[in-house]
């Protein structure tokens, strides 16, 4: 069972934020930490020792952020990347990639949360905040579905040009696009233009009435 995430932020306002959470580091016997570390031939005082390499990998798996893991062990990014490309550091490089995969799982959770919950955006008119509304990015939703449910939500072999009405993927996309149009936020400029056009038409009509032009049949 994966360990529940823990929040390291001291700010209460950020304790429910997805990016405020850091997963628990791997246990010492986790296979991720069983890689063969790079061993310096003539280690210096600031060398990235096997112990520091494992600490870096553990932090990277918990956070998914290379800079944060580097800061945890007090090493520069330049030194870490230089070490990663050394002959004999293949085990460290492979563990690095595996740790990133675990960290990316948190990013996937954030993407799914955004697809489901949407994003709260402000409603502003004439410089005044009128309120907020929740917007769902249907392109983002389709992307998440295509990645997590590729068999159901993408065309076979990616050949969308071959889709025809009646195909399950075609019908799903058609329904989504129709929903997009229904849910589209009205454009304030379009509404203003329409109002001005109607006012102009009313003004022209009033001018015709005053000059004695007939109205209607």
What does this structure look like?
With 217 residues, the protein is mostly helical. The chain folds into 2 domains: 6-116, no CATH class; 119-185, no CATH class. The chain is built from 8 helices and 4 strands; from the N terminus they run E-E-H-H-H-H-E-E-H-H-H-H. The chain has helices at residues 50-63, 66-73, 77-84, 90-117, 138-148, 150-153, 168-183, 188-210; strands at 6-7, 21-22, 119-125, 128-135. The strands form 2 sheets. It has a two-stranded antiparallel sheet. Strands 3-4 form a two-stranded antiparallel ribbon. The N and C termini lie far apart (79 Å). The model is unreliable at 1-7 and 9-20 (pLDDT under 50).
Feature tags:
217 residues, mainly alpha, 2 domains, two-stranded antiparallel ribbon
Short summary of the structure?
52% of the residues lie in helices and 9% in strands. The chain is mainly α and 217 residues long.
């Amino acid at each position: 069972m994966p360990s529940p995430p823990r929040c390291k932020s001291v700010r209460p306002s950020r304790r429910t934020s997805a990016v405020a959470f850091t997963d628990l580091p791997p246990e010492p016997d986790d296979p991720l930490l069983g890689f063969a570390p790079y061993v310096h031939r003539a280690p210096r005082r600031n060398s990235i020792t096997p112990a520091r390499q494992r600490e870096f990998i553990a932090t990277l798996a918990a956070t998914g952020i290379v800079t944060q893991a580097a800061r945890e062990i007090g090493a520069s990014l330049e030194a870490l990347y230089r070490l990663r490309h050394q002959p004999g550091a293949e085990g460290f490089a492979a563990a690095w990639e595996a740790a990133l995969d675990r960290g990316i799982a948190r990013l996937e959770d954030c993407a799914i949360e955004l697809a489901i919950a949407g994003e709260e955006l402000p409603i502003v008119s004439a410089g005044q905040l009128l309120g907020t509304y929740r917007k769902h990015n249907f392109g983002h939703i389709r992307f998440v579905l295509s990645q997590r449910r590729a068999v159901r939500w993408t065309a076979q072999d990616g050949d969308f040009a071959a889709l025809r009405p009646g195909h399950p993927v075609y019908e799903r996309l058609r329904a989504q696009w129709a929903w997009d149009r229904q849910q589209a936020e009205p454009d304030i400029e379009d509404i203003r233009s329409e109002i001005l056009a109607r006012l102009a038409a009313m003004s022209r009509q009033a001018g015709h009435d005053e000059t004695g032009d007939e109205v209607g049949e």
